[in-house]
Amino acid sequence: MKKLILLILLLAMAAANAIAARMYPAGGRVVDEQGQAVEYATVVLLRGGEQVAGMTTDDAGRFELKVPTGEYTLSIQYLGFDPVLRQVRVEADNDLGDIVLKSSSTQIEGVVVKAQLIRREADRFVVDVANAPAAIGKDGIELLERAPGVWVDDEKISINGKSGSKVYVNDRELRMEPAQLLTYLRSLRADAIQKIEVVPTTGAD
């Protein structure tokens, strides 16, 4: 029986900093090896292994993240392509230019997969795992790491840099400790997953 993994991000209330750091934009464009825009790729800036900011590329492959000045690791991920890690320094306006994603060695019929793999609906992103040759052999965590806006570390799953996500399988919420949840998701295989839905925000309570 196919399983449906549905991620829902709850809006988290965060305490405001007493002194707001000055933020600078770091932007660029994500393209494939043919120079075509890669839409809905996950772009994250990390400092000391911690996510500072994150988003998905738009339909032109563009992104812009605003963070305090400093040294960061830029991480870009998309199913069917090898991840990119790059050291960047953010200060004033930063144009990172075009960043090329290379097709994964396991990808099959890359152009077809790219066109059909991820679509955007009114309030969510849908990853069609069942029809994605690039998903073959991956587990649930590996698939989530390539889903739009999703970042997975050793303790939590966040969406677009915000914590407070909930995970549902077949409309049932998984109420587990973070370590247990990650272990369970790693036990899921791609051939048992029909699709993944990522809902970046929920309605206000």
Radius of gyration: 17 Å
N- to C-terminal separation?
Answer: 34 Å
Q: Please tell me the total number of domains.
A: 2
* Biggest sheet, spatial arrangement of strands: 9-10-15-1-13-14
**Mean of the pLDDT scores?**
82
Shape: globular
The amount of beta strand, in percent, is: 35-45%
Overall SS class? mainly beta
Number of helices: 3
Main sheet makeup: 6 strands, mixed
Order of SSEs: EEEEEEEEHEEHEEEEHE
Written description of the protein model:
The protein starts with a strand and ends in a 6-residue tail after the last strand. The chain contains three helices and 15 strands. The longest helix is centred in the C-terminal third of the chain and has 10 residues. The protein is mainly beta. The radius of gyration is 17 Å and the shape is globular. About 10% of the residues have low confidence. The strands form four sheets. A six-stranded mixed sheet has the order 9-10-15-1-13-14. Strands 4-3-6-7 form a four-stranded antiparallel sheet, with no helix packed on it. Helix content is 12%, strand content 41%. The chain has two domains: 104 residues, no CATH class; 77 residues, Immunoglobulins (Immunoglobulin-like). A hairpin with a 4-residue loop joins strand 11 and strand 12.
